[in-house]
Design goal:
By secondary structure, the protein is an alpha/beta fold. It has 24 helices and 13 strands. It has a 5-stranded mixed beta sheet. Strands 2-1-3-4 form a 4-stranded mixed beta sheet, covered by helices on one side. Strands 7-6-5-8 form a 4-stranded parallel beta sheet, with helices on both faces. Helix 20 packs antiparallel against helix 21. The longest helix is centred in the last third of the chain and has 18 residues.
Length: about 550
């Protein structure tokens, strides 16, 4: 395939677009609420009303306001300036009314407000295609400028120029740690394999396991080709010809769409050998994990891909030097790869102009918990927690009061409402005792017991510990027991002191990030909500 063929596919797809487009969300959240039946009924109604030539019913990925699903959006090409109409909590029986409304008929189907800050405050880069394109048709992705960045890279840029572009963009790893992506790519690009082989690998970490997090799953369900394109560009930049996507088995919709996307790309010659008639070969395989949280840690993930037990090993050597089967390996998460193609298309300076001085670009968050608008948001780095929780999220239902927000999953911390003016970026969240994490954001109201929150996350870490190192295997159990004792009002001040000492020991002596970060929810709740611990202890006999 050459650029002419690519552009022809895009043009044909755009020309085939009908005057009216009805987009129905078929991502996992809406599918669980029967959206597939909604889509089928819409298609049947369009056919029955002889509107097939004028109306397209398209299954699309996540439309973000998950709490109101199934979601259906109607747009008319004759009204390009209009935001269209969003229908919420649609049932199959609503289909005739939605079709009737196309000609001005009245409808009682619940409508959403596309002018609400939940939508207008977003800045979609990673999610620019989500809810718009058909994730199961490569032509739909190509029509949205898909694979043009890969073509440009292969035909007009050297690998070092690609690495330089990613470095200048300021993109940092979206998996949680925030390591500079360009620096990681440069390290792998410079790494030398063993004497027998100079083989290198590229891995996409899609083992999203944080409670309340569903960003990566939604991207893979909504725009799988975007991740494949980002991986291919990364492979060209670092000199790899084999890629793996490591994804948990609990994501069947994402897995199916990835498999479909890979087959389609191979069929068009966009994956495989001599991509775009170049000398670049790249193949992607999927590896399905069994849901072990620890396999989100990169060394455990690689062990699992190799067919071994998924347990971490000490670093160095780092994967960039000795990773999969001992070869230099690049590992980034789904959202990181999803940023790559837009950076190449629009330029490193464009991306670097978004966000803060040290945290560039946007971040996708999954809003969940005691909040009115649950779903996906993508905002520029530096957006305040107040803007996200109160303006976009709509605050707590029924007029409740926000008490805290937990970011970063079990590895993160709980941030009190008094700190909500703080910007959301890597440095600010770290100063608050939390972390960016992969992007889960759980809101808590005034009825939440913060000691119970700390105990919940400690129980999660205790259950998910691989058991390889004693500080994590034994320490998390003892911390959970102490938190339970405090929660039940049976602890003393000596127990509280022991809790803090154990947290420090587990943090500084555990082998991998799971154990090292397990005490974070305890540290943050002690920092901001210590009075709740003291209240539970004060009635205890000393």
């Amino acid at each position: 395939m050459d650029v002419t063929e690519l552009l022809e596919i895009a043009q044909q797809e755009r020309q085939s677009q009908k005057p009216v487009q009805i987009r129905c969300c078929v991502a996992a959240g809406c599918l669980s609420a029967n959206s597939q039946a909604v889509k089928q009924r819409l298609e049947e109604t369009v056919t029955a009303e002889n509107l097939v030539e004028k109306v397209e019913v398209r299954g699309v990925g996540c439309m973000r306001l998950c709490c109101q699903g199934p979601l259906v959006q109607v747009e008319k090409n004759t009204e390009p300036e209009s935001l269209g109409t969003l229908y919420e909590k649609v049932t199959p029986d609503d289909a005739p009314a939605i079709i009737a409304a196309l000609n001005g008929g009245e409808t009682t189907v619940q409508q959403g407000d596309l002018t609400h800050p939940f939508f207008t405050s977003q800045m979609p880069i990673v999610l620019e295609n989500s809810g718009k394109i058909d994730p199961e048709r490569i032509q739909s992705y190509i029509a949205a400028e898909g694979y043009q960045a890969l073509y440009h890279v292969l035909r007009e840029m050297t690998p070092s120029e690609v690495v330089d572009a990613i470095t200048r963009s300021g993109l940092r790893g979206r998996g949680g740690a925030g390591y500079p992506t360009g620096l990681k790519w440069a390290t792998v690009a410079k790494a030398k394999g063993d004497e027998q082989s100079d083989r290198k690998f590229v891995i996409c970490n899609a083992d999203e396991g944080d409670p309340g997090a569903f960003m990566d799953r939604s991207v893979l369900e909504s725009d799988p080709h975007r991740v494949l394109e980002g991986m291919a560009i990364a492979a060209y930049a670092v000199g790899a010809n084999q890629g793996y996507i490591y994804i948990r088995a609990e994501y069947p919709v994402a897995i199916n769409r990835l498999q479909t996307a890979i087959r389609q790309a191979q069929r068009l010659g966009i994956l495989g050998t001599q991509i775009f008639d170049s000398r670049f070969d790249f193949k992607i395989d999927i590896r399905i994990g069994a849901g072990a949280y620890v396999c989100g840690e990169e060394t455990a993930l690689m062990a699992s891909i190799e067919g071994k037990r998924g347990t971490p090993h000490p670093r160095p050597p780092y994967p960039a030097e000795s990773g999969l089967w001992g070869h230099p390996t690049l590992i980034n998460n789904v959202e990181t790869y999803a940023n790559v193609a837009p950076i190449i298309r629009k330029g490193a300076d464009w991306f670097a102009s978004i966000g803060t001085s040290k945290s560039k670009g946007t971040k996708v968050f999954a809003l969940a918990g005691k909040i009115c608008n649950t779903g996906l948001i993508e905002v520029p780095m530096g957006t305040s927690l107040k803007q996200i929780v109160e303006a976009m999220g709509g605050g707590v239902p029924d007029g409740g009061v926000v008490k805290a927000v937990q970011t970063g999953g079990p590895s993160g911390g709980c941030i009190p409402a008094s700190a909500f003016d703080s910007p959301v970026d890597y440095e600010s969240l770290t100063q608050l005792g939390s972390m960016m994490g992969s992007g889960g954001m759980i809101v808590m109201d005034e009825t939440t017991n913060m000691v119970d929150v700390a105990r919940f996350f400690m129980e999660f870490c205790m259950d998910e510990s691989c058991g390889k190192c004693i500080p994590c295997r034994v320490g998390t159990v003892q911390l959970y027991k102490l938190l339970t004792k405090i929660s039940e009002g049976k602890a003393s001040f000596a127990d509280l002191e022991l809790l803090e000492e154990l947290c420090d020991m587990v943090k500084h002596t555990s082998l991998c990030g799971l154990g090292q970060s397990a005490p974070n929810p305890v540290f943050s709740t002690l920092r901001y909500f210590r009075d709740e611990y003291l209240t539970l202890i004060s009635g205890t006999t000393q």
